[in-house]
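We treat protein structure as text, and this decision shapes the records that our systems exchange. Because each token names a local backbone shape, the row as a whole describes the fold. An entry from our holdings is shown next, in its original layout:
>
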Amino acid sequence: MTLEPHGGQVPWHNQDQEEVYIILDGTAEMCLGEERRIVTSGQAVYIPPAIYHQITNVGATPCRMMYVYGPAGDVAHWRQELSGTLPRAGVEAPALPEGARPQCTAKPQR
């Protein structure tokens, strides 16, 4: 997947599966539970089941990444993201780590 420059985002969410994000190109802010770090090309992030997480492109170029789930199956947050019903950080979900980029909760416009 590609996150657009200056703020493209996979918003704050969680799921039942384990997940790994692999950063192929670019620079992003990764929030995982209470932790917040910058990740760049060649790095990977392991995301345990049920842990809230978000990734935001903080660079001036597209951030290309790959994600892998296990076990395979339907991922509930995909439906929530498409319908604009993701839980809001600090309201229906835990708050984002201090200093994190704001959560994007609006349905993407095309």
